[in-house]
Amino acid sequence: MQKDKIMILYNSKTGFTQTYAELLAAKLDCAALPLKDAPADLSQYDVVAFGSRLHAGMLDGWKKARKLLAQRSAKKLVLFATGAMPNEAEAQIQKVWEQNLTPEEQKTIPHFYLQAGLCYEKMGGVDRAMMKFAAWAMTRKKSKTEEDEAFRNAIRQSYDISDPKYIEPVVTCLKQES
Ligand SMILES: Cc1cc2nc3c(=O)[nH]c(=O)nc-3n(C[C@H](O)[C@H](O)[C@H](O)COP(=O)(O)O)c2cc1C
């Protein structure tokens, strides 16, 4: 495969998305850069991948990235989201895509979810407070489902459920698109 066919851009606060972006770049022999360092002209790339964390159900920075990628003439796009949910939480993940992408984007932009984890040590103060609030809100919830209980237990501490193997579908897709 030729170089410079693919560009990987990412936003990452605690490192999970950056790690996945760098694994993709190593596998595909291309660059991975933070979105803020995106080249001014993206038209030379066959495909641009954008990865970010999920943040209260939203793909963090996607609104800004969507604009920037269009302004800088990115051709084809591929998205990947990282989060604390396991890959098996298919219904919740589907809901996330419906919340973040227009129906047209859902059809035309390949999008992937990669399970990652939580890292309180690297989290900012606002994020830590938001997690504390989420845990508190869960204790207050009257009829808790098994999933609610699992979520409440899971977010008590940092955990890492990421794995390099999860990039494989993204790698295949980026190869096909480039
Ligand atoms: C305030 C806050 C809200 C979050 N909301 C979600 C969420 O809605 N769904 C999810 O799966 N993960 C959620 N997470 C977990 C992050 O998406 C996860 O840790 C992500 O991999 C972090 O990526 P980064 O290390 O690249 O910053 C949230 C984390 C924080 C701190």
Structure in words:
A hairpin with a 2-residue loop joins strand 3 (47-55) and strand 4. This protein has helices at 16-28, 62-71, 90-100, 103-108, 125-140, 146-154, 168-177, and strands at residues 6-10, 31-34, 47-55, 58-59, 76-83, 111-115, 117-118, 159-160. The protein contains 7 helices and 8 strands, in the order βαβββαβααββααβα. Helices cover 42% and strands 21% of the residues. Strands 1, 2, 3, 4, 5 and 6 form a 6-stranded mixed beta sheet that branches. With 178 residues, the protein is α/β, with parallel strands linked by helices. The longest helix has 16 residues, at 125-140. It folds into 2 domains: 6-119 and 158-177, Rossmann fold (3-Layer(aba) Sandwich), CATH 3.40.50; 122-157. The radius of gyration is 17 Å and the shape is elongated. The site of flavin mononucleotide has 23 residues, from helix 1, strand 3, strand 5, strand 7 and helix 5. Flavin mononucleotide (FMN) binds next to helix 1, strand 3, strand 5, strand 7 and helix 5.
